[in-house]
Amino acid sequence: MSTSTSHSPTSTGATPAPERQGGLLADAFHQPRAVWAIAFAATVSFMGIGLVDPILPAISSELDASPTQAMLLFTSYLFITAIAMFFTSWASSRLGVKRTLLIGLALVVVFAALCAASGSVGQIIGLRAGWGLGNALFISTALAAIVGATSGPSAGAIILYEAALGLGMAVGPLLGGLLGSASWRAPFAGTAVLMGIGFLAIMALLRTEERPAHVSPLASLKALANPALRTLALTAVFYNFGFFTLLAYSPFPLEAAAAAQGREFGAMGIGAVFFGWGLALAITSVLVAPLLTRRFGLIPTLVVTLGLLALVLLALALLHTSMIGMIAAIVVGGLLLGVLNTALTETVMEATDLPRGVASSAYSGVRFLGGAIAPAVAGPLAAAFGAAAPYELGALTIVIAIIMLVAGRRHLAAVAGQGASHHLDAQAEAEAITAGDEV
Fold first, then answer.
1. In angstroms, rounded to a whole number, what is the distance separating the alpha carbons of residues 250 and 393?
2. What residues make up the domain containing 83?
């Protein structure tokens, strides 16, 4: 993220909770066309998180690829996203917000279209890397663009932005399933078309703005010297391993469990399940996580929710032959992941005196490496030790994440005592949701 440079509430972001729930909710839908254009593009961008999930088995089958090869679509995407996140703050400070948005969108359009035209899983794996670069550039600057484009109170535009993220998280798997039931190529082509519309809308409607303050290209890498940020980044590496074990690996045992019961699940069935997952994640990330962190504090919320996620992964290991059991566990996992994504990023923002954009970029860059490794490991592990093994390893990595968090708690004194009185301003809360859900 590259949308903020301090911890103090600003006139553009600070909004009392009652006001956000009242008059500003109506204001959220009375925005300039530029704000709507960015919100539309953000929705499509966040659809990409779950868009590929329903078509992984189809890609594996039709392109004669192993599940491991199909899951590498996540690995290449996340690895390049991780590297890019270290430099997005610097890029937007050099290029300006509008130009960064357009470059990011153009890259997604080109690489998504090329994915649709690919003839091998190897080509798609390579092209997904370019897609990851584009998405990192776009998402890292979208919130700043929305705040800058609004003509009224910024909190109204931020509510609209949060709604766009939630909608994208929920609709992505469903759209992937609907289009994927026709062809595995269709979700890629659909994303290219929708992002192309977003590109044209932003080009036409968003005014050219002044460039943000200059940021060093090494600022995010240097930020990892901060012990609090390093503790949270290491926690997130292991957490994201569990996250992407659930997201990237689950379509394969889910389809196998359905087939064992004589049902043809297919892309539409997988899409429907992960629609429930995405909807659950969106609801808890936008609505539930802020309530829990204010009531119980950031660290207690993280430790308890991580523990529950480890239990969900163990449940998936035990229930991997039960279609109904897997569906229930995946949706419950979505509820927990939404809380964890937002709470972890909120902790990153509050635990150090680093500029929020720099801290968030450094944290995101490290944590996505865990997400990139998980899909590459899950396939070979399942082939060698059985379908439950990836979930068991995922549960273990969540336990390690808890140990990392507790062991480094002495570095998190700035947030250790925050409870009911703790709150982020509206813009910082949206940044936490964005950085938490960004993939």
1. 14
2. 17-437
